[in-house]
UniProtKB/TrEMBL annotation, chain A:
InterPro entries (alphabetical): DNA_bd_Ku70/Ku80 (IPR006164), Ku70 (IPR006165), Ku70_bridge/pillars_dom_sf (IPR027388), KU70_core_dom (IPR047087), Ku_C (IPR005160), Ku_N (IPR005161), SAP_dom (IPR003034), SAP_dom_sf (IPR036361)
GO biological process, one term: double-strand break repair via nonhomologous end joining
Keywords: ATP-binding, DNA damage, DNA recombination, DNA repair, DNA-binding, Helicase, Hydrolase, Nucleotide-binding, Nucleus
Gene Ontology terms for molecular function: ATP binding; damaged DNA binding; DNA helicase activity; double-stranded DNA binding; hydrolase activity; telomeric DNA binding
CC annotations in GO: Ku70:Ku80 complex
Keyword Transcription regulation applies: no
Record has Membrane as a keyword: no
A Pfam family assignment: Ku_C
Ranges for domain SAP: 553-587
Family: Belongs to the ku70 family.
Protein name, UniProt field: SAP domain-containing protein
From TrEMBL, chain B:
Keyword ATP-binding: yes
GO cellular component: Ku70:Ku80 complex
UniProt name for this protein: Ku domain-containing protein
Main location: nucleus
Gene3D superfamilies reported for this sequence: 1.10.1600.10, 2.40.290.10, Ku, C-terminal domain, von Willebrand factor, type A domain
Residue stretches making up the Ku domain: 267-405
PANTHER family assigned to the protein according to its UniProt record, in alphabetical order: KU AUTOANTIGEN DNA HELICASE (PTHR12604), X-RAY REPAIR CROSS-COMPLEMENTING PROTEIN 5 (PTHR12604:SF4)
Record localization: Nucleus
Length: 592, 686
């Protein structure tokens, strides 16, 4: 089905009277829904996936759609999101003056012939939009199933105003949504707060993209070439943590904002001849005065040390895994039957046994042809759900990269302080009191945002929309020091008092006098050498300084001027005019 | 600290061929190790003892050092030294240890001369020469100690392992061991030294502080330092050189890469100040002037601040997003050390970690860090820091639970997995931090091999050496296992049969009307058939001949109607929706008019399913409903037979609901009603 890696995401927002009632945040539900849609639009622009996004309102008296379907108003056609669409949504969010009606749930989606993943996200507060008309209800359910058959998955985000009754999922939507996809998760508790809605939409924000389809070879004793194909299981690799980057930049010609043509050439440093054939390249490594040369094929051969994929080395206790031995962001692995049938069953049993026995698997990983093999640990992960049954952690394996001997640094130990006594019990207790006072309830990644990325994309958005003022970015990674100090005022004071009165006593490390000494020596040598060179030039600097009209000093080049500055301890930085001015002032005041 | 080393090789008259060979191997291995892992500041000298002619500075000045030959005075080592080691021969002179040590230590004292270098003598000997002036030892030892010269002896234990012990060897062993002991050195046998030299070591890094500033906890702050603890090691990359020119000129010609920018309008090369940056915001490109650029980044003043404390159990390792830094207190600030130690102990006691805001340098972006305490086995108390994810870093992908699948197996299957896991337990000694980077080690091995080959043969075209014994050992996964019993593995596959799913090669659909059997492949086969036994199918798998031969599809044929239909609809160049739908309808009608048999019914079901699906996707529900009505009417009149088809796939004979279209025309609603009636009639009749 998914020939294309893109996704088609349509938001259908209920625009009937009930949606204008206020939520717990004192905001109309429809505004809340549109705010969330705007956030998704923004995030899709940032991730630049090329997905097509659209917004449809249903239950309107006015109709605006190509097929003249009643009660359907297409707000934004399916298209790649752009800054204008965000601006439009922002305007709507501020003025929700929709013409309301008592229309029925009556939405239709036309997806043309694109072979992409299709999703319909439905915002509504009405759990039973067709109360009495059984025929109409059946018809709507059949429509929804037809949509599902054509590859469209429908996801529901039920909303709740202050006044509305509890949302009964089973009245109508259970049949509408069905269970077309295993990713689908019914939201049982309706959402009444913007933050909550954002949390839910965040979970549906990204399309599940496989980073790599790989094999886990289980029989380590067989050698490559001789191994049976059936000693491996299929796994899908996902990146659950990924540091976002700033968008791609191109260079433009300043006078007309047109992209410039870029030409990269490779040429010989000596003759300037252009490189015509890639086979003319060799790789050279200096080794004790000898340049060791390798051909590109030899370089490739050097890196090929084990089979591609993952090779199981063995199992060990999970407690052996140390946090401090972390080098990269982890990956997530989920068994797949796509390439090897039976993988899911075997890996599910293995996963359960590993969980029960508190074991981890050590594997050798080489995911790509060009990457070097590394060691990693497969850590089983059990499913975890939030109070509202939203999956927080999925079943599967985390792939945690392990360091080699070369990755661990030990040089810092030379700087480790040496103290005579351990701090007193009172001192440690005082520190414990501070910790207790400054404890926070939990770590929720969604509460913290990268201000740099936010600033960058907000700035770009403002530039795109010709907004004069750049939107302010809230630095969520900062804390209110004064408030923290106030909360633990007594404890902090006590800790400070004890620390000052009962120091542990240290053996002071002798500061290395090497670097300043070397710097002074270097400066002295430079000064001496500069003076010698100036003497060799036999220039009359006083005369040069006086010869203002004929530009005596100005005629000297920067190297000579700097040399003078070095010789007479003057500042060497700045432009030529500044240097000349400095030297002239010096010559006027000093006798050389 | 860097070293100044003098290697002393015994080539005296007692040396036999085997010992000479061992000496060569050992000295080359030792030299290569010094070059590979030693500092660039280190000095290396070479002295032979047991030479027939004296060639050393002490003999020239004082006389008496008759059998010592100084080949290389301590200097920055280069590969030419390998030549001496490879080409050394037994010279038949008398090997006097005291003389050799005197000459070497004098060379070292001269070379070190106030430099920050550790002097070291490495003596390789077979220990068979009788020593005459051992009493002089007491005279030279204080001088050696004064200059902190270290002495290592290689080959000593080999004397003792010898089955026919000689009085001389025993006394020599005693002498050299005593010397090595007094000078903080070691005495090893040939085998042990060779084994040690074949094991890789870590080259030391220069110490750099990542952060030197205050750690702020609300109103309390004290100076701390951050150093790298665990970071991914990047193996060296080679310099790109122009091979043909390098061969001609006899020296390495570097290949330079340069990028030039040209105006699209007038094809003129542009200067940097004539260009500005353009950033993509989604698909829109936004020009950003140099004045706006600073506004696009967020900078904060340097800081390390605790945001709050949390229980350690709330975190798992998989959320950590970077390498790890280690934090220690400022070693020269007593108050800081007291704060630091008490805080770390308190965190350990309470099993707490801290969330921190970390800005490494002024005007850079802040990051969220996790800080946790650690007490190392050697008593070192420190805090570790690692990056945590924030909102933008998280991807929420839901996955179905594995519990039901894991519970669906029987006890035997579970036992098989358990036994297999038990047979695959790693040795207790296994630590990833004791395994060296595979690629880096392989590169070093090849570099050493090629450097030696190039120096000895003056030829740059050698082949890559086989894997070193170390790499062979660590690349064999079974090396780290406690056992090698294959039985549990066999049992495992008996209970969990795996089947590889052949991935069908995606190829374009055939685009001619005729069936594949009518196409002769003969004209497109290569003139020389590679393997007579290779089947046509196998050949076709590799070379999709159809792609080359067949033309674009314009009609829905009866051979593969569904494929043709889909093909026409997915054509990006032409809009053949109407045409394809019409032709498909014709094909279905034509098929229905044929005599009833299994094959015909299969085809009709296939076609109707595809047609129905497409009608839904394309919004052509009425078209399907009309076709259905037509079919049902014909069937009730007895013109066609659809009984079997309805029995097999009754869902196809339900009309598609067309929302909103009922209002478009009254005829449609009439048709709908008619269809409903007919369908009811038909299904009740069945």
């Amino acid at each position: 089905m998914e020939d294309d890696n893109r996704e088609l995401l349509l938001f259908a927002v209920d625009a009937r009277k009930n949606m204008y009632e206020e939520s717990e945040d004192k905001v109309p539900l429809i505004t809340m829904a549109l705010g969330c849609v705007k956030e998704v639009f923004k995030s899709r622009i940032i991730s630049d996936t090329g997905d097509l996004l659209g917004v449809v309102l249903f239950g309107t008296t006015k109709a605006n759609n190509p097929n003249d379907l009643a009660n359907i108003y297409v707000l934004l056609e399916l298209d790649v999101p752009d800054p204008e669409s965000i601006l439009y949504l922002e305007t709507l969010e501020k003025t929700p003056n929709w013409i309301m009606s008592q229309g029925l749930l009556n939405h239709a989606v036309r997806s043309k012939t694109l072979k992409v993943r299709k999703r319909l996200v439905l915002f509504t507060d009405d759990d039973d939009p067709i109360e009495n008309d059984e025929n109409q209800k059946n018809l709507t359910i059949r429509q929804a199933r037809d949509l599902a058959e054509s590859g469209m998955s429908i996801e529901l985000l039920p909303m709740k105003s202050v006044a509305s009754k509890p949302f009964d999922y089973h009245l109508f939507y259970e049949d509408v949504i069905g269970s077309t996809s295993y990713e689908l998760e019914p939201v049982n508790n309706p959402i009444s707060k913007f933050d909550e809605l954002q949390q839910h939409i965040l979970k549906k924000k990204y399309k599940k993209r496989v980073l790599n389809n790989t094999f886990l070879y289980l029989n380590s004793s067989t050698m490559e070439g001789t191994q049976s194909e059936l000693d491996a299981v299929g796994l899908e690799v996902y990146a659950l943590f990924h540091r976002p980057t700033k968008s791609k930049k191109v260079l433009l010609e300043a006078r007309n904002n047109e992209p410039v043509r870029r030409v990269t050439i490779a040429y010989s440093e000596e003759s300037g001849a252009l490189l015509t054939s890639a086979s003319d390249i060799r790789y050279s490594f200096p080794f004790a005065g000898v340049a060791c040369v390798f051909t590109p094929s030899e370089m490739e051969q050097l890196g090929h040390l084990c089979r591609h994929g993952m090779e199981l080395i063995g199992f060990e206790n999970k407690d052996k895994l140390k946090w401090q031995y972390n080098i990269r962001t982890s990956y997530f692995l989920y068994p797949s039957d796509r390439t090897i049938k039976g993988s899911q069953l075997f890996m599910a049993v293995l996963w359960k046994q590993m969980l029960q026995q508190n074991q981890i698997a050590i594997v050798r990983v080489c995911l790509r042809r060009t990457s070097y093999p590394r060691l990693a640990a497969l850590v089983p992960q059990d499913e975890k759900r939030t109070g509202s049954h939203v999956q927080r952690e999925s079943c599967g394996f985390h792939l945690i990269w392990l360091p080699f001997a070369e990755d661990i640094r030990k040089e810092w130990k030379t700087q480790y302080p040496k103290w005579n006594d351990l701090p007193s019990k009172q001192c440690v207790q005082a520190a414990m009191n501070v910790i207790s006072k400054l404890s926070i309830p939990s770590y929720e990644p969604s509460n913290y945002s990268d201000p740099d990325i936010q600033r960058y994309y907000n700035g770009l958005q403002a530039l795109a929309l010709n907004q004069s003022n750049l939107p302010q970015v809230q630095d969520t990674l900062n804390a209110d020091d004064a408030q923290m100090a106030e909360v633990a005022k007594g404890e902090l004071e006590e800790w400070t008092k004890i620390v000052a009165s009962e120091p542990v006593g240290i053996t002071k490390q002798e500061k290395s006098s090497q670097s300043p000494k070397r710097w002074y020596m270097k400066r002295a040598i430079e000064k001496k050498r500069s003076k010698q060179l100036l003497e060799e030039q036999q220039l009359d600097w006083k005369a040069l300084a006086r010869d203002e009209g004929n530009d005596g000093l100005e005629k000297q080049n920067m190297a000579v001027l700097k040399m003078f500055c070095t010789a007479y301890d003057l500042k060497k930085s700045g432009r030529k005019a500044e240097l000349v001015e400095r030297i002239r002032n010096y010559l006027q005041t000093e006798n050389i | 600290m860097s070293e100044a080393i003098v290697l002393v090789c015994d080539i005296g008259h007692t040396l036999d061929a085997q010992s000479l060979n061992q000496l060569k191997q050992l000295s080359v291995a030792f030299f290569l190790r010094c070059i590979t892992y030693g500092s660039w500041r280190q000095l290396f000298g070479l002295v032979f003892m047991g030479a027939t002619k004296p060639e050393n500075h002490l003999h020239n000045i004082l006389g008496g050092y008759t059998h010592i030959k100084t080949l290389v005075v301590p200097e920055r080592p280069d590969m030419s030294l390998v030549k001496y080691l490879y080409h050394c021969q037994v010279e038949g002179g008398f090997s006097d240890y005291i003389d050799a040590i005197c000459v070497s230590s004098d060379l070292l004292i001269r070379a070190v001369n106030k430099k920050k270098l550790k002097p070291r003598i490495v003596l390789i000997t077979d220990g068979k020469t009788e020593q005459l002036f051992t009493e002089q030892l007491e005279d030279i030892l204080p001088a050696l100690k004064e200059h902190s010269i270290r002495l290592d002896v290689i080959g000593v234990e080999s004397f003792l392992k010898d089955s026919v012990l000689h009085k001389v060897q025993i006394s020599n062993a005693a002498l050299l061991c005593r010397l090595a002991d007094s000078l903080d050195g070691t005495a090893l046998s040939f085998d042990d030294s060779m084994e040690q030299l074949s094991e890789p070591i870590v080259k030391s890094f220069s110490l750099r502080t990542n952060y030197s500033g205050m750690l702020q906890i609300a109103s309390v702050q004290f100076p701390v330092r951050l150093y790298t603890y665990c970071r991914e090691f990047k193996p060296p990359t080679g310099k790109r050189i122009f091979w043909s020119e390098s061969m001609e000129s006899g020296r390495q010609v570097v290949c330079v890469r340069e990028t030039h920018y040209f105006s699209v309008q007038d094809d003129r090369e542009l200067e940097p100040e004539e260009m500005i940056e353009g950033h993509f915001y989604g698909r829109t490109m936004i020009p950003v002037s140099p004045f706006d650029l600073p506004a696009l980044s967020y900078g904060a003043p340097q800081c390390l601040k605790v945001l709050g404390f949390l229980p350690k159990k709330d975190f798992a390792q998989h959320v950590l997003m970077s390498g790890v830094d280690v934090m220690i207190a400022d070693p020269n600030d007593e108050i800081s050390v007291t704060y630091f130690v008490s805080l770390t102990e308190a965190m350990l006691e309470m099993d707490r970690v801290a969330l921190c805001r970390y800005v490494q340098r002024d005007n850079t972006s802040p990051v969220l860090m996790l800080m946790w305490p650690h007490l190392k086995s050697d008593g070192i108390l420190c805090l570790f820091l690692c990056r945590l994810p924030v909102l933008e870093d998280i991807r929420h992908y839901p996955f179905p639970s594995l519990h039901s699948l894991a519970d669906s197996v029987d006890v035997e299957q579970v036992d098989a997995v358990r036994n297999w896991m038990a047979s695959k337990q790693l040795k207790d000694t296994f630590r990833s931090t004791r395994v060296f980077h595979y690629y880096h080690q392989r590169l070093l091995q090849c570099l050493q091999d090629r450097a030696v080959y190039q120096t000895l043969h003056n030829d740059e075209n050698g082949s890559l050496p086989p894997l070193s014994s170390y790499l062979e050992r660590v690349l064999d996964p079974a090396y780290f296992l406690t056992g090698r019993d294959p039985e549990p593995f066999k049992q495992l596959w008996k209970h969990f049969p795996l089947k590889k799913i052949d991935k069908t090669k995606r190829r374009k659909k055939r685009k001619i009307l005729t069936s594949p059997q009518e196409i002769s492949i003969e004209p497109y086969l290569p003139s020389v058939w590679p393997d007579r036994n290779e089947s046509l199918e196998e050949y076709q798998k590799e070379e999709p001949v159809e792609e080359i031969v067949f033309t674009e599809k314009t009609k829905v044929g009866e051979a593969t109607p569904v494929a043709d239909f889909e093909n026409m609809l997915s054509n990006k160049r032409h809009d053949w929706l109407e045409e394809a739908m019409k032709q498909m309808q014709d094909v279905i009608e034509h098929l229905l008019s044929q005599e009833e048999d299994q094959q015909r019914d299969d085809k009709i079901i296939h076609c109707l399913t595809a047609f129905r699906k497409r009608c839904i996707v394309e919004g052509e529900e009425l078209r399907y409903n009309r076709l259905l009505l037509d079919i049902v009417q014909k069937a009730t009149q007895g013109e066609i037979f659809i009984r079997n088809i309805v029995e097999r796939k009754s869902t196809l004979f339900r009309r598609i609901s067309a929302p909103g279209k009922e209002q478009i025309s009254s005829t449609n609603s009439k048709e709908e009603e008619e269809l409903e009636k007919q369908l009811e009639k038909l299904t009740s009749g069945l």
